[in-house]
Amino acid sequence: MQESYLNNELAENEVYSQLKVPKNIPFAVRLDGWKFRSLCEKLGAEKPFDSRIAKCLVAACTHVLRNSNPSLAYIISDEINLVFIKNYPFNGRIEKINSVLAGLISASFSLNARKIFGKKAVACFDCRVVILSDKNLMDYLIWRQRNGWRNHNNAYAYWLLRRLGHSPREAAKKLERLKSKQIHELLFKHGINTSETPAWQRRGITVERKRIVENWNLPLFTTKEGQKLIHRIIEGAVKNNK
User: Fold this and answer.
1) What is the arrangement of strands in the sheet containing 125-131, beginning at the earlier edge strand?
2) Which of 28, 110, 136, 188 has the highest CB neighbour count under 10 A?
């Protein structure tokens, strides 16, 4: 009796274990690389972006798409967004979603990085659940794409400053003082036109669940073409889940 009582009491201390995503509400799971700059340095990745890193991220998303049921994976910079519309994993339990998906992405990325770069790498991703609605799903993706665009410009500017002789701290401090327009001017002055960099760096990559289709040449999500693309992917995923 005493042991049973103690077990029940301890189980009740798992205060967040039954926290769930509300039913019939779309949500995103956002995963960010932890200490990713240091990891890329160890791997010898190209700066500021390396298509091999992007391939590792795509491979990790593909693994999740085959073993879980997100409707869409969207990759931008070192960030992964998994969008769920129906058939929530783990009955919507947030602790399980965060822990298992972070583990799957981290392990898959690490294994693929070792294959592609020929070096041992231990990647780690943090994970959070973002509750959405039918109305703001598109707004969420637009927000993440815009954030990725800012990161894209900052990354090019940071490594330009490093090549110009600034230390990591000096480069970071200088960037903090520069506005978006000034960053563009700095890059353009040194022959870098950010509107001509590869589209996957500026706008991200989508991976569809159906037949695992990758798109490395995305339109802006603010355009009709971009919104039509996302609606088609989501509708297709929902249809296949019925």
Assistant:
1) 125-131, 27-33, 79-84, 72-76, 205-208, 213-215
2) 28
